[in-house]
Design goal:
The complex is a heterodimer of chains A (112) and B (387). Chain A has a two-stranded antiparallel ribbon with strand order 1-2. In chain A, strands 3-4 form a two-stranded antiparallel sheet. With 112 residues, chain A is α+β, with helices and mostly antiparallel strands. The longest helix of chain A is centred in the first third of the chain and has 8 residues. Chain A is built from 4 helices and 5 strands; from the N terminus they run H-E-E-H-E-E-H-H-E. In chain A, 19% of the residues lie in helices and 21% in strands. With 387 residues, chain B is of the alpha+beta class. Helix content of chain B is 28%, strand content 25%. Chain B is built from 10 helices and 20 strands. In chain B, the strands form 5 sheets. Chain B has a 5-stranded antiparallel β-sheet. The radius of gyration of chain B is 21 Å and the shape is globular. The chains are: A alpha+beta (112), B alpha+beta (387). At the A-B interface, helix 1, strand 3 and strand 5 of A face helix 4, helix 6, strand 8 and helix 7 of B.
Chain lengths: 112, 387
């Protein structure tokens, strides 16, 4: 039933293997970490919820944030979905133009 | 081989073996990080052995049921049966548009009880099926280590790549976003695996977590974290959750009419209300169990919420006595009643066969077994081979 004898994975092996690292001690629940992603924003404390588990790397990633305007990309800064919105946006108009968080509140996993 | 047990018809066998010495690192190298939580999930201390004629039977049932399901979707639309599915009225145009415009759909998983040579459909995970990576990749690499000479009912990987290639011209202009919940490695793995196959099909992709999806009120479009318009999006996130959340109605307002994969019409098939509809339409089908919306039609039955996940809120009833029952948060939308079909017993292990349909074709199986008659979130994924 299996036609090929060779399977290639181009993305998932490296990406997910990196998620599967043991938790670092400095991310223990007791650690007090304050983060902001925009210099116009205040710092807020982040909490290492138990549910984060092995997906730490993905969860706390600071992603480049920008805008497409007439086909040109304009960098606006960085954004991390792990931290409080007020520490992401500050007075940065680019970031405030779009609302987020309208999906993703109904469950913790779709596992079926 | 330490021991084995057989089904009553003496075909599918459950065979105990010694796991690979390095099995944890072997599966982790594949990117399979959720093999064990507080209980084992990937279990290679056993495998199931099937004969080719059994595989052919499962393949045939899967293809036939898929066709029946498509007929049932058309019937629900023609007869306007949405209320039985508790689908809100405002979502109906979106569902029907996705059907008439033939929006891309890629996969689904039928859950079968296979016993005494008979296959019976328990339910169809048509919208957000998981365990795809275990079925397509992890068990295949297990077989390469265990016995390369053997075959497996598994063409998941090839079919995913081929079907993404087929779908590519039908996508909207722009990249294909992939989205799932944060903080769940299982969902991320399934999503990234599908993205891996799409990349190999030559599609430009990007991952954005579902709670990072933005809505641009001025432009009336969904955007990713770079504020790039979302025009095609694979979502590992159920339609009933999307509709219930604050961005739900924005899907209708979206000026790009983004293609959501799986499409909105899958809401009909992923809802257990489809089971009585299928039975009403196709009572002669050997793969269907009698199922009804009313409780008084059956003496021995399984009561299932029309919307539920991971075996929650299920009640198995034999002669009005509850055999097994699970708790959970589902049931507010109503229940259906399906004739009781207990899973086969292999030394108190109860396997359910998850049979994949990819594109329009049967694509292989993954077997999960539990220690109870209800397959819940404590079930284990067990590999298989063809003897």
């Amino acid at each position: 039933m299996k036609k090929s004898t060779y399977i290639q994975l181009v993305l998932i092996t490296a990406a997910l293997a990196s998620c599967n690292q043991p938790k670092k001690n400095d991310w223990e629940d007791s650690a007090k970490v304050h983060i902001r992603s925009d210099s116009t924003a205040p710092y807020t404390r982040v909490y290492h919820h138990n549910g984060i588990g092995t997906a730490l790397l993905w969860y706390y990633a600071f992603r480049p944030y920008g805008n497409y305007n007439n086909g040109m990309y304009q960098r606006a800064g960085y954004y991390s979905s792990a931290i409080h919105p007020s520490s992401n946006i500050g007075s940065n108009g680019f970031k405030a133009a779009v609302s987020r968080g309208g999906f993703g509140r109904s469950g913790f996993s779709v596992s079926s | 081989m330490v021991g084995s047990s057989k089904t009553r018809n003496g075909k599918m066998e459950r065979i105990k073996i010694t796991p690979r010495n390095n099995w944890q690192s072997a599966v982790e190298k594949l990117g399979f990080g959720f093999h064990t939580t507080n209980i084992p999930y990937w279990d290679e201390s056993v495998y199931y052995s099937l004969k080719m004629n059994e595989v052919v039977l499962i393949e045939k049932a899967t293809n036939e049921l898929w066709n029946l399901c498509l007929g049932a979707v058309q019937h629900v639309m023609d007869e306007g049966l949405y209320q039985q599915f508790q689908i809100p009225e405002w979502a109906i145009p979106m569902i029907e548009r996705s059907w008439t415009e033939d929006h891309p759909a890629i996969y689904g998983r039928f859950d079968f009880c296979y016993k005494d040579g008979q296959i019976k459909l328990l339910e169809f995970n048509a919208d957000t099926p998981t365990s795809l990576y275990e079925a397509g990749i992890v068990q295949w690499f297990w077989l390469q280590d265990f016995d390369k000479s053997k075959d497996q009912f598994n063409s998941v990987h090839e079919k995913l790549i081929n079907y993404w290639k087929y779908l590519k011209p039908f996508l909207n202009q722009g990249i294909l976003h992939f989205t799932c919940l944060k903080e769940t490695l299982e969902d991320l793995t399934n999503t990234e695996y599908l993205r891996d196959c799409a990349i190999q099909a030559g599609i430009e992709t990007k991952l954005v977590f579902i709670d990072d999806l933005g809505w641009d009120e001025v432009e009336q479009q969904f955007v990713d974290l770079d504020n790039q318009a979302v025009t095609n999006v694979f979502k590992l996130y159920p339609w009933e959750w999307l509709l219930a959340e604050s961005f739900g109605k924005n899907i209708l307002a979206d000026k790009n009419r983004a293609l959501w994969i799986e499409p909105a019409w899958k809401m009909i098939l992923s809802n257990k209300a489809i089971l009585p509809i299928l039975w009403e339409l196709y009572p002669e089908c050997p793969y269907l169990l009698p199922a009804y919306f009313e409780a008084n039609q059956l003496e021995n039955y399984v009561k299932k919420p029309i919307l539920s996940r991971e075996g929650a809120n299920i009640d198995l009833v034999l002669k009005n006595i509850s055999l097994a029952k699970t708790e959970g948060q589902y049931g507010a939308e109503g229940f259906i009643y399906q004739e009781l079909c207990t899973l086969p017993n292999f030394s108190d292990n109860y396997p359910v066969i998850g049979s994949w349909i990819i594109g329009q074709e049967s694509a292989g199986i993954g077997i999960r077994e539990a220690n109870t008659l209800i397959t819940d979130n404590k079930s284990r994924f067990v590999p298989h081979l063809i003897e």
